[in-house]
TrEMBL record:
InterPro entries listed in its UniProt record: DUF421, UPF0702_alpha/beta_dom_sf, YetF_N
Lineage: Bacteria, Pseudomonadati, Pseudomonadota, Alphaproteobacteria, Hyphomicrobiales
Subcellular location: Cell membrane
Membrane topology: Multi-pass membrane protein
Protein name: DUF421 domain-containing protein
The keyword Cytoplasm is annotated on this UniProt entry: no
Keywords: Cell membrane, Membrane, Transmembrane, Transmembrane helix
YetF C-terminal domain residues: 78-146
Species of origin: Methylobacterium indicum
Amino acid sequence: MNTVLKAAAAYIIVLFVIRLIGRRTASQQAPIDMVVLFLFGGLSVSAVLGDDRSFVGAMSALFTVGLMHVAVSWLKLRSVWFERIVDGTPIVVFRDGRWNETAMRRLRMQQADIRTAARQEKLDDLDKVAVAIVERDGTVSILEKE
């Protein structure tokens, strides 16, 4: 039972820390982001299993994390408030030629990240961009001026 409780606690803590770190998709991850994710996994396994190297202990932890994931998904479907806490909300970082510096700092994003997203949409000049939004998954959506 101890392993199950530690696995559930680890799930919640890792979810919280990942939300605290910020938004990045796999395609946008820098090497340092990968290091952090790998360390999270290794440290979590050590914390959950400790000295218990048994098959039952490992499967209990695995099953608990799986059930926690299902529970969080279920709660997100039933509560907009909970979904916003877990997944966040889209954030406008650029609109009509003006940067939202506060949001950019909070997201730890640079103007270069938005310019890159604009270029990927074949927009080489920000004068052609109406709005740039950092989506919940960390991708940047660019809406072109009409």
